[in-house]
Amino acid sequence: MADEQSSVYRRLYLYGRLLVGHGWDTAAFWIATAYSIYTFVVSIHIQQRVLLAINIDPHQRLAVCGFGLAAFFLYAGFRAWSDERELHRIAAVSVADPKAVVHVQCSGRQASVLVTNEGSLAEFYGVFSIEGMVGANRQTGLFCRWEHTDSPKAKIARGQTCRIILADLIWSHPIATAQWNIRTTTDNGAPANIEAIYSSSATTVPICRAPDILLTGAIIAEPDLVNGIQPFRVVLKAFASAEE
User: What pLDDT, in 10s, does the model give residues 27-73?
Assistant: First the structure.
C-alpha cells in the first residue's frame, strides 16, 4: 500500500513539473509569436483598428480571462498527461527487460569480466575472438566460459553478478616463465583451453617478453538487453592484463 501511494505521489509530482514546463513553453511561444507578427508585420493603422476592435467590456474581462486560462490549462495539461504516461511506460519496459552492467577486472594473474543484471531474469552468454600468437586454429566466434558453469549460457537474476574467466597467467618454476592460458567452452558445454605460443621470462637478461594478445568480445542476452550488446576488450601483456 505504501509503495502504491509513493508511486501515485511520484506520478503527480512528475505531472505537475510537466504541466508547468509545457505551460511556460506554450505561453512564451504564442506570446512571442503574436507580438512579433503584430509589431513587425501589421501596420500602425491596422494596429490601432485592432485595439479598437478588441476593446472588451469591463464586465466581461473576467469571463474572457477565465476562458483563456481554461484553454491554456487544457492544452498544457494534455501534453503533460501524455508525456507522463510515456515516461511511465518507458520506465516499466526498462524494468521488465534485462540490462547488463559489464566490468572488466584485470590483475597480474587473471583477466575476467563481471556481468551484473539490473533488469529481469535473462540468459546471458559471451563471445570473443583472439588476435595474437596462440596454439589454436580457430580464433573467432569463441564462447566465454563462466566461473560457475561450463555451459556457454547462464541465467542471471535481477541484481545478481556472475563472472567470466577469460584467461590465466600460468607461472612455471623454477625457471620463472609466464604463459597465458585462455579459457573457452563449446556450445555443448565442453571446456577448452587455448595456450599462448610464447612465454615470458623475468629472470633472463634482458627480460624476455611475449607478444601481446588481444581479446575482443561482447556480452549478449536473451531476451535482448535494453542497453544493447555490451562490448569488451582486454590485452594480455607479458606479465599482466589490461582493459583496452
Answer: 666 666 766 666 666 666 666 666 655 665 556 656 666 666 666 66
| Distance separating alpha carbons of residues 10 and 13, to the nearest angstrom | 5
User: 147 phi and psi, to 5 degrees?
Assistant: -70, -35
- Strand 110-117 with 161-172, pairing: antiparallel
Count of other CB atoms within 10 angstroms of residue 105: 16
The strand pairing partners of 230, in sequence order, are 219
Closest CA to 154 of 198, 123, 117: 123
Tell me: cis bond preceding 174? Omega within 30 of 0 counts.
Answer: yes
Measured CA to CA, the distance from residue 46 to residue 40 in angstroms comes to: 12
| Own/partner pairs, 196-205, CB within 8 angstroms, 24+ separation | 196/132, 196/133, 196/134, 196/135, 196/236, 197/133, 197/134, 197/135, 198/133, 199/172, 200/238, 200/239, 201/175, 201/176, 201/177, 202/176, 202/178, 202/239, 203/175, 203/176
Q: Which residues contact 63 (CB under 8 A, 6 or more apart)?
A: none
pTM, full prediction: 0.62
Strands 213-222 and 241-243, how do they pair? unpaired
